[in-house]
Amino acid sequence: MKDVLLIALFAFLGAAAAGLLGAGVLRLLRHRSLVVSLSVVAGVAVTAMLAGTLTVAWAMFLSSHDLYVVTTVVAMAALVSLATAVLLGRWVAAHSRELTLATRSFGDGGTFAAPAGQPTAELAELARELAATSAKLDSSRERERALEASRRELVAWISHDLRTPLAGLRAMAEALEDGMAADSGRYLRQIRTEVERMNGMVGDLFELSRIQAGSLTLTPARISLYDLVGDALAGVDPLAREHGVRLIGDRIDEVPVEVDGKEMSRVLDNLLINAIRRTPPDGTVAVAAHRSDGGVVLSVTDGCGGIPDEDLPRVFDTGWRGSHARTPPAGAGLGLAIVRGIVEAHAGRAEVRNVQGGCCFSVTLPAA
User: Fold this and answer.
1) Which residue in 39, 126, 131, 129 sits closest to 80, CA to CA?
2) Considering the entire predicted model, what is its pTM?
3) Which helix (DSSP H) or strand (DSSP E) does residue 148 occupy?
4) How close are the terminal C-alpha atoms of the chain, in Å?
5) Are 185 and 193 in contact (CB under 8 A)?
6) How many helices (H) and strands (E) does the chain have?
C-alpha cells in the first residue's frame, strides 16, 4: 500500500509540474489562434503523462532499456495527439473564418447565410442565433423603410392640406380687408370652418407625436363598454344623418373594461367617423362588442366596399388614406394610426379585415 501511495505521489508531482507549465503557456498564448491553444492542451496532456511516468520510472530505478521503451511509447503518443489537435484546430478555425465572413455580410446590410456543416455544437448554435438575429434585422430594416416612407408621405400630404386652407384664408382675409366681400358673414363662417379643420389636424399631429414619443399618459378606470359605445354613437349620430348612413349598435354586451375613457372615446370616434365617411348613403355602420378568450373585442363594420388586399397591412400606418383624394373628408391619414397607438398603449391590438360589402375594424382589449 505504501508503494502505491509513493507511486501516486511521484506521478502527481510530475504531472502537476507539467500542468502548471502548460497553464502558464496557455495564458501567454490566450490571444492566439485556436490551433495553437489546442496544440498546447494536447501537449500538456502528453507532457503530464510523460512527466508522471518518467518520475515513477526513475523512482523505481528501471533499467535504461526499459526507460527508453517507456519514453518512446509516450513520445509516439505525443506526436499522434499533437497531430490530432492540429488537424482539429485547423478544421474548427476554418469553419470559424467562414462563420466570420458570413457574419460580416449581414453586418454590412446583407442577409446572413449560415455555412453548412459546423464542426461543433457550439458553432452550430452560434450560427442559428446569428441567423435569427439576421432575420430580426431584416424585419427591423423593412419596418424602418416603411416608417420612413409613411413619414415622407405624411409630410407631403400635411403640407398640401395646410397650404390649401391657408391660401383660402389669406384670400378671404384680403377680400374682407379691401371691402370686396359682398357677404362678409359667409366669409367669416368659412374662415371659422377652415380654422377648425386645421385645428383638428394639428391636434391629431400632437396626439400622434405623444403616442410615438411614448409620452401618452393613461388614466385607466373601470368602465362599462356598453356606456362607452353608447356615448360614441350619440356623438357621431349627426354626422351619420348628414351622410345618410344608418348606425346599428344592438349587439353590445355589457362587459367592463379597464381603460382611459377619454382616449378610448377618441378611438371609437375615429373608427366611427372613418366608417361613416367611407360608407355610401343608405349604407350601414354596425358596432358590436363581446367577450372572447383573448379579452374584449370591439368591432366597427362599414360598407366601404372593402380594402384592396395589398393595402390591408398599411391601413394603420401613419399617413395612409386609402386613396389619393385631397378633399377634406380624406383627412390627414392620422386617425387610424392614432387608434392603433392608443389601443397598443392599453396592451391591446387593432386589426382590420374585409367582410362582405365592406371591412371590419376590430379592437381587442384586456378584460377587466
Assistant:
1) 39
2) 0.56
3) helix 121-178
4) 77
5) no
6) 8, 7
Per-residue pLDDT tens for 292-335? 887 889 999 999 888 888 888 888 877 666 654 434 444 556 78
Nearest to 70, CA basis, from 44, 84, 85, 51: 51
Per-residue CA distances from 181 to 83, 185, 188 (Å): 100, 9, 10
CA-CA distance, 113 to 110, in Å (whole number)?
9
Interior CA angle at 188 toward 182 and 193, to 5°? 135
CA 175 to chain centre: 53
Residue showing cell 500542468: 19
Partners of 292 in the β-ladder: 295
Contacts of 309 (CB under 8 A, 6+ apart): 354
Contact 271, 310 (CB under 8 A): no
Residue range 234-251, pLDDT digits in tens: 999 999 999 999 998 878
- Considering only CA atoms, which of 57, 66, 46, 74 is closest in space to residue 7? 57
Residue 121 φ then ψ, to 5°: -65, -35
Does the pLDDT of residue 338 top 70, yes or no?
yes
Cell numbers for 54: 518518467
Distance between CA atoms of 187 and 168, rounded to whole angstroms?
A: 10
Rounded CA-CA distance 228/346 in Å is 15
Helix or strand run (H / E) with residue 123: helix 121-178
Give the 3-state secondary structure of 8-29.
Answer: HHHHHHHHHHHHHHHHHHHHHC
**Secondary structure (3-state) at 295:** strand
Give the distance from CA 358 to its chain's centroid.
30
Q: What are phi and psi of 292, to 5 degrees?
A: -130, 180
Residue with cell 354596425: 286
What 3-state class would DSSP assign to 315? coil
Q: Residue 247 in 3-state DSSP?
A: strand
